[in-house]
Amino acid sequence: MFGLSFDQLLDIALTAFETIAILLAVVIAAALLIWVERRLLGVWQDRYGPNRVGPFGILQVAADMIKIFFKEDWIPPFADKTVFVIAPAIIMFTTIMAFAVVPFTETIGVVDLNIGLLFILAMSSLGVYSVILAGWSSDNKYALLGGMRTAAQMISYEVFMGLSLLGVVLLAGSFDMRVIVESQAGMWNIIPQFPAFVIFLIAGCAEIHRAPFDLPEAEQELTAGYHTEYSGMKFGMFFVGEYLGIVLISCLITVLFFGGWLGPILPGFVWFALKAGFFVCFFVLLRAATVRPRYDQLMSFGWKILLPIALVNVAITGAVVVAMA
Amino acid sequence: MLNAAQTAWNATSSVLRTIGMTFMHTFRKRDTILYPEQQPYLPPRYRGRIVLTRDPDGAERCVACNLCSVACPVDCISVVKTEDETGRWYPETFRINFSRCIYCGYCEEACPTYAIQLTPDFEMGEFDRQNMVYEKSDLLISGVGKRPGYNFYRVAGMAVGGKDKGEAVNEAEPVDVKTLLP
């Protein structure tokens, strides 16, 4: 068929299967996060959270999904229809695309790009369009304000996110995520690259606009920010897109700083899931514990504190790598 | 420079401390009462379902004076008066529309005979609105409610049901206003 040998066809089929499996696992994990987050927030607010539907309330996800699918999918008459519809798809698309280069174990992973890390940064940059276009096409003051904040926030924090990762790249000598994990066999990057880890954690949080950096949606000031006018499954896509973002950033922290699948006794996938799960919970804890900074505080914190630290970190790491070589 | 370092340290430590304190809530007792399985404590004076009580002798307390109906801000009480052969007033019908009732308790305050009382019970949900209309037979209970031992006609100076003027508890003999002699 198409001049391909049987082995090549088998290879294609296996890759396709693997891709679909990873896609499903990631989306299901993101959907489950709706429940996980509500339960954990409950735990940290001395409540129970949703515990009625199914065992421990885990079927709450299904109930929410059914509800959101049957909601009226309303497009405001004053909105720019095409853009309005495309915007929520972009965030899902870019976030899911970024998972393509994440190595889950030694063998599982869609593709090993030698520019893996750059690919992820590129995809997260493209994700900005989703929020800005949503804010613009809604033709609503709150949405536009949210969109503008997002533009400023995500573009600035991308700078530190990229710079903080340079240290990791210097140590591994490659942008390939798999090589980065393998380079941590002796020592996880968290120890030599601790400042980079902190900056990446903060910038990652801002990049997926999670609390405390959820200024684009800031309920108290902007009703719902950029997705004020969205309803039904279009809102659901922003919602799931945000959770996908949490999963992605947790996976990235695991891969870049905590040795990915590396770990004793347990199989690689379990280690990966444990580490990523820990950071997912940590992001929820951050939401439960921290307060949202003011917009100018967010900007000055980024440019005046994170940027110098990131630059110094890159300089020192570079010097050490050169000296050791 | 030292000042800036101090500020940075304060900010960082306060954020970390907040995160730690929030995390410690994992081990606290839950505040939620798991309602249908676990019943909440309702104080005795809770303003819930409205009942009509009886006096200690087992007779109805309500004298159909309509004060509750007048006091009701949402007009959910309707009373029709009747009399027995001794001249004592009774409600012929006593109807409360609980789909309008706001459980303010004004009826209880207005009642001169402590007949109408609010009780600590709120589980009155119905699928059919019509079922929220309670008739006298639904409202009347066989107990004395919150006022044990109180009987309006024993302390009131009204001649009713074989009890004449001046025969009530703590009541003086009626004064003959037609004579000047003490």
Automatic annotation (TrEMBL), chain A:
Entry keyword annotation includes Transmembrane helix: yes
InterPro entries: NADH_UbQ_OxRdtase_su1/FPO, NADH_UbQ_OxRdtase_su1_CS
One GO molecular-function entry: NADH dehydrogenase activity
Pfam (any one): NADHdh
GO cellular component, one term: plasma membrane
Substrates-to-products reaction catalysed: a quinone + NADH + 5 H(+)(in) = a quinol + NAD(+) + 4 H(+)(out)
Record keywords: Cell membrane, Membrane, NAD, Oxidoreductase, Quinone, Translocase, Transmembrane, Transmembrane helix, Ubiquinone
Membrane-topology descriptor: Multi-pass membrane protein
GO BP annotations listed: aerobic respiration
Superkingdom: Bacteria
Subcellular location per the Swiss-Prot or TrEMBL entry: Cell membrane; Membrane
Listed EC numbers: 7.1.1.-
Keyword NAD included in the entry's annotation: yes
Membrane-crossing residue ranges in chain numbering: 12-33, 82-103, 115-136, 157-175, 187-206, 243-263, 269-289, 301-324
Annotated signal peptide: none
Family membership: Belongs to the complex I subunit 1 family.
Function: NDH-1 shuttles electrons from NADH, via FMN and iron-sulfur (Fe-S) centers, to quinones in the respiratory chain. The immediate electron acceptor for the enzyme in this species is believed to be ubiquinone. Couples the redox reaction to proton translocation (for every two electrons transferred, four hydrogen ions are translocated across the cytoplasmic membrane), and thus conserves the redox energy in a proton gradient. This subunit may bind ubiquinone.
Self-association and partners: NDH-1 is composed of 14 different subunits. Subunits NuoA, H, J, K, L, M, N constitute the membrane sector of the complex.
The protein, known as: NADH-quinone oxidoreductase subunit H
Species name: Salinisphaera orenii MK-B5
Gene for this chain: nuoH
From TrEMBL, chain B:
Annotated 4Fe-4S ferredoxin-type domain residues: 50-82, 92-121
Principal location listed in the UniProt entry: membrane
The record's free-text note on cofactor binding: Binds 2 [4Fe-4S] clusters per subunit.
This protein's GO CC annotations: plasma membrane
GO molecular function, one term: NADH dehydrogenase (quinone) (non-electrogenic) activity
Swiss-Prot/TrEMBL cofactor(s): [4Fe-4S] cluster
GO biological process, alphabetically ordered: aerobic respiration
List of residues binding [4Fe-4S] cluster 1: 62, 65, 68, 111
Reactions this protein catalyses: a quinone + NADH + 5 H(+)(in) = a quinol + NAD(+) + 4 H(+)(out)
Binding positions ([4Fe-4S] cluster 2): 72, 101, 104, 107
Record function comment: NDH-1 shuttles electrons from NADH, via FMN and iron-sulfur (Fe-S) centers, to quinones in the respiratory chain. The immediate electron acceptor for the enzyme in this species is believed to be ubiquinone. Couples the redox reaction to proton translocation (for every two electrons transferred, four hydrogen ions are translocated across the cytoplasmic membrane), and thus conserves the redox energy in a proton gradient.
UniProt similarity note: Belongs to the complex I 23 kDa subunit family.
Name of the molecule in the record: NADH-quinone oxidoreductase subunit I
Organism listed in the record: Salinisphaera orenii MK-B5
Organismal lineage: Bacteria, Pseudomonadati, Pseudomonadota, Gammaproteobacteria, Salinisphaerales
